[in-house]
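Notes from the 1:1 (GR / supervisor)

We went over the backlog. Supervisor wanted to see one worked example end to end before approving the batch request, so GR pasted a single chain during the call. The sequence is below; no edits were made to it. Supervisor asked that the structure be written out right there so they could see what the output format looks like.
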Amino acid sequence: MNKIKAVYDVVKAMKDKKAREGVLRVKVEKDGQQVSSFRNEFLHNEEGMTKCKLQTEWNWDGNVGKHESTTEFKRNDQNGFPCRGGFRPFQHREGFGHEHGQNRGFKRKADGFLFLLRMLNELKVEEQGEHLLFSLELDDEVKQMRERMQGKFDQNRMFQGPPQHHPLRGKLMKEIILMDKPKVIVNIAANKDNEVEKAAITIHGSYEKGGTHELKAEVEINFTK
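Structure output shown during the call:
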């Protein structure tokens, strides 16, 4: 199977979708105990209406609590992903500036492009009935992935999970960055129309901070429409 065509077809199908509905779940375990959970039920229809219902609980290093909220809004722009924070400021800083800034921006984009090529090389694609299954395991490339993910987490509210007053805001990414040789496993299932039905990411590893700790984060998104 042509992996490039398979990836292209799925990305194009998801990009062209006008309506999206589903559930995003995040679960974090530290030393075998669940310390944080996050759930986002989202809907984005063809009229531009977006609804998000957020639920999160945490019990991490003495910080205990829960938060629930619901957001609804409508916009004329039909594109985009529900409840996203957007990447425009990040893109603007990469593309403009004096000569040194331009060189740095070009290097960053080149590094990102090479990283994507390496991921594509490692990607496995399998046909199973009417579904396409994508799987990817990363070890050596995780450091670069963590650095890029940190920037996206900082700017995209959908994946930040906790609201701004949350005591654990940004803590998960800091813990992941401390990991020694973390392992990342990605699994994606797409239907016969090349639309993603389910995607899951698992990050697992250990780090030293007042002793040795095991950390496992699971992210799963299920599209119902």
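Supervisor's comment: The two ends are 27 Å apart (CA to CA).
Batch request approved.
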